[in-house]
Amino acid sequence: MSFQSYMDNIEAKTGKSPGDLQTLAIDKGLADANGLAPGIKAGAIIDWLKQDFDLGHGHAMAIVAYIKGKRD
Prior knowledge:
By secondary structure, this protein is mostly helical. The chain has one domain. The chain has four helices and two strands; from the N terminus they run H-H-E-E-H-H. Helix 3 packs across helix 4. The longest helix is centred in the first third of the chain and has 12 residues, at 3-14. 25% of the residues are buried. The mean pLDDT is 96.
């Protein structure tokens, strides 16, 4: 599955674009404009996405990659 397919599936499941999820992560203090917030590990974001949006591990990791700057 391509990275874009992951992003499309995430948006279909959650109703939120990857950018929306990044904004929510920033609002929660998990991320900042440069990626993960200082002292935050990927597991914290994965746990949040699994709990609040029922994403699986692979899809949550795709959002972590997006937050870190991956776009394709």
